[in-house]
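Severity: low
Component: inverse-folding endpoint
Summary: output formatting inconsistent between runs
Steps to reproduce: submit the following structure tokens with default settings.
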């Protein structure tokens, strides 16, 4: 059925509303709503663009992905190409741990028969539906392939032309003798719609412009390989494409004449992310696109913003930095800010400091290798001590309960702990050996008198079981607000140990690749080893499964850049999110990673991933951070964090901060 015949009375001598469109060719500040229209299976660049867009959530709110038709050596027809693109989109989203429900839509099964006739599809209808929603600014529709779906939406519902902006990659620069790149030549009629109707259009030409984004396999290997699941997958995809298209032609993989691949489609995302620096563009009069696929200069037509130059280094630097993060940005928390004017330091010489909020209203914390509050590295030194912190975040005092300088009770054994929990008026902590390799075993201890005395379990989890240095998941006061009757513990999977790595500067290193496991136990049976269950993956309904066989455990958290040798996890009730903090990449160096999830087992997303946390305010030497639930506001947005490190940060430290909502 032909749609929109009134829309395309083809523009010739005049273009009413040209000035209005010119004003609409600049992106608004802040976050923008985006639809991606992609021939995802055509080659290997669309996958990069999708991952880049989803990893740029501070700027891009991706509302939908539409599958575009294509036909080449990877498909038997336009319809087959669209279906393969649909399935490839699902595959990429699965790697990214992003739900595809009501997010991915099948597009046209054929190209446009002419520039007046739409090809209806769920993708075109979804573009229309999203365009009609109320929002500040336009819906930005980014086309990475043949413009069939976008043109069909404009033909079916012409009124959306003043509610959307189209960003399309295809064609060549206007001074070329022809315009026919792959995207344009697949559906010339659809491209004619984009250049003919009164929709704000940003054009990224393929030749000379997007073509500058060439990259070699060795460069991709350095930038992506081993950095994250999606980075690994994208690298492998290009490697396979090389084998498919170039290796048998004798093109070398590396060297001065190495094969290079253009990652075309990231140019469009780069313009959305950084239109002033990553992409140089101009506003000019749109050329006329002939039926033969050639540009023809014309006057009195609508303006177009056309990209003329890309900053290749800036674009790839941003892309690699984002894809190197283990998870997509948080959909709930847009970032975290710290007010270093509130920084407070006590207990110099004592480190670690996991915390819990107990039934008496106080925080209890565990330190190592020092005298605790009012002690020093030598005065009152114990390998393991327990303290009570009384008061609010802005007015507290610390007192040594068990061990340290002038304690209420002497410590009766040594060790280290990175996890403490108050539940049913009982304190529990995870212990690791000291002296002796920390990683060799981990066992529970509990106290029924608020830390005055402790009893250790007669069993332990061991290094050879792939478990080390655990922590507890902390909820509210005395575990109030817990999700169920289980206690949850997170274990780091050791990649070195149990002894200290031979060349370690600090006695510890991050574990690469980083894996964290989750166990649960009924809270009244926490001292019974046979009651522990480990996360064993998800079932076909995406629900967690559990096993008592340690050999069948599966990681709930993964960072190929590494995880720290310690971790903290707490529940932010105001935001209804679980927060996991650990190092990445290197230890004792401010490599602060903060992640959030809707459930204790994920799926995790990224809140912060910093390389030099507190730089310019404090020495960059921290290795542990935790968020006491007592010191979080009722809406979850403000907090006081506890942290520690080496040298000046070898101490109890607090700093106030706030989470930024999406």
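Observed output (run 2 of 3):
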């Amino acid at each position: 059925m032909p749609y929109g015949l009134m829309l395309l009375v083809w523009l010739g001598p005049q273009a009413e509303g040209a000035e209005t469109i010119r004003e609409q060719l600049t992106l608004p500040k802040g976050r923008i709503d985006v639809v991606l229209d992609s021939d995802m299976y055509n080659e290997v660049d669309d996958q990069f663009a999708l991952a880049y867009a989803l990893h740029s959530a501070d700027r891009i709110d991706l509302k939908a992905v539409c599958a575009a038709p294509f036909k080449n050596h990877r498909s038997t027809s336009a319809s087959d190409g669209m279906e393969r693109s649909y399935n490839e989109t699902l595959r990429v989203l699965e790697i990214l741990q992003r739900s595809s429900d009501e997010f991915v839509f099948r597009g046209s099964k054929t190209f446009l028969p002419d520039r007046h006739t739409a090809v209806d599809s769920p993708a075109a209808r979804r573009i229309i539906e999203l365009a009609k929603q109320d929002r500040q600014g336009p819906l930005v529709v980014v086309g990475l392939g043949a413009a069939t779906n976008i043109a069909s939406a404009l033909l079916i519902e012409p009124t959306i032309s003043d509610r959307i902006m189209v960003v399309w990659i295809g064609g060549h620069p206007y001074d070329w003798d022809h315009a026919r790149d792959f995207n344009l030549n697949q559906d010339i009629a659809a491209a004619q719609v984009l250049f003919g109707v009164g929709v704000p259009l940003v054009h990224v030409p393929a030749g000379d412009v997007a073509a500058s984004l060439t990259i070699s396999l060795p460069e991709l290997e350095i930038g992506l390989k081993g950095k994250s699941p999606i980075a690994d997958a994208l690298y492998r995809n290009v490697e396979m494409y090389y084998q498919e298209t170039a290796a048998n032609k004798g093109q070398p993989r590396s060297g001065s004449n190495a094969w290079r691949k253009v990652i075309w489609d990231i140019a469009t995302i780069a313009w959305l992310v950084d239109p002033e620096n990553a992409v140089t563009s101009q506003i000019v009069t749109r050329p006329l696109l002939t039926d033969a696929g050639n540009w023809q200069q014309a006057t009195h037509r609508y303006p177009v913003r056309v990209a003329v130059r890309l900053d290749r280094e800036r674009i790839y630097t941003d892309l690699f930095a984002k894809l190197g993060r283990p998870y997509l940005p948080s959909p709930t928390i847009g970032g975290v800010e710290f007010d270093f004017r509130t920084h407070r330091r006590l207990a110099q010489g004592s480190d670690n400091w996991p915390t819990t909020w107990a039934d008496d209203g106080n925080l209890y914390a565990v330190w190592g290798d020092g005298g605790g509050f009012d002690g020093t590295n030598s005065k009152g030194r114990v390998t393991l001590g327990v303290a009570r912190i009384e008061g609010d975040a802005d007015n507290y005092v610390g007192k040594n309960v068990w061990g340290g300088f002038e304690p209420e009770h002497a410590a009766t054994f040594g060790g280290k702990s990175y996890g403490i929990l108050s539940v049913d008026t009982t304190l529990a902590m995870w212990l690791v050996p000291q002296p002796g390799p920390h990683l060799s075993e981990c066992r529970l201890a509990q106290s029924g008198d608020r830390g005055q005395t402790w009893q250790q379990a007669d069993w332990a989890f061991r290094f050879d079981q792939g478990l080390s240095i655990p922590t507890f998941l902390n909820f509210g006061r005395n575990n109030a607000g817990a999700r169920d009757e289980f206690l949850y513990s997170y274990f780091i999977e050791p990649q070195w140990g149990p002894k200290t790595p031979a060349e370690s500067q600090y006695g510890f290193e991050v574990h690469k690749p980083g894996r964290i496991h989750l166990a649960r136990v009924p809270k009244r049976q926490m001292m019974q080893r046979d009651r522990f269950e480990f996360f064993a993956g998800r079932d076909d309904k995406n629900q967690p499964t559990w096993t008592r066989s340690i050999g069948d455990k599966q990681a709930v958290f993964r960072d190929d850049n590494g995880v720290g040798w310690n971790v903290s996890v707490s529940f932010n009730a105001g935001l209804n999110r679980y927060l996991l903090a650990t190092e990445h990449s290197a230890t004792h160096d401010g490599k602060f990673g903060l992640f959030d999830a809707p459930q204790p087992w994920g799926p995790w997303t990224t809140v912060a991933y910093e390389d030099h946390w507190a730089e310019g305010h404090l020495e960059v030497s921290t290795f542990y951070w935790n968020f006491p639930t007592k010191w979080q506001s009722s809406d979850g947005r403000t907090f006081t964090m506890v942290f520690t490190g080496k040298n000046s940060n070898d101490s109890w430290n607090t700093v106030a901060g706030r989470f930024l909502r999406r």
